[in-house]
Amino acid sequence: MGEVPLDEHEVGKLRWRCRRGLLENDLFLERFFARHGAVLTPRQGQLLEELMQLADNDLMDLLMRRQEPAGELDRPEMKQLVELLRSR
């Protein structure tokens, strides 16, 4: 049985916490929320918040495929989320 998606209010709060200083990052995140916001699970929300701890340039490097998740971020579930963020 899958996780129940976040409700609209929780997605809105998460979207607000994901606002970034670099426009490029915001564009990736807005596209992600437009496509996946309605089905975002609590676990995916936690992983997204973990990604938001990265510096803007490090996040942009991940999203633009200049680097792959490394260290503590090098986990299958994180790689899956990063691929969702990268998808066009």
Q: Estimate what percentage of residues fall within beta strands.
A: under 5%
- Specify the biggest β-sheet: none
* CATH class descriptor: Mainly Alpha
Q: Structural class, please?
A: mainly alpha
Order of helices and strands: HHHHH
Q: Compute the separation of the termini in Å.
A: 28 Å
Would you identify the regions where 5 or more consecutive residues have pLDDT less than 50? Answer: none
Q: Tell me, what's the shape?
A: globular
Q: What's the overall average pLDDT, rounded?
A: 94
Helix count, DSSP H or I runs of 4 or more residues: 5
What structural keywords apply?
88 residues; mainly alpha; DNA polymerase, domain 1; globular
Structural description of this entry:
The chain has one domain: Flavinator of succinate dehydrogenase (DNA polymerase, domain 1), CATH 1.10.150. The protein is mostly helical and 88 residues long. It is built from five helices and no strands.
Fold topology:
Elements: H1 8-17, H2 23-36, H3 42-51, H4 56-63, H5 76-86
Give a quick summary of the entry:
With 88 residues, the protein is an all-alpha fold.
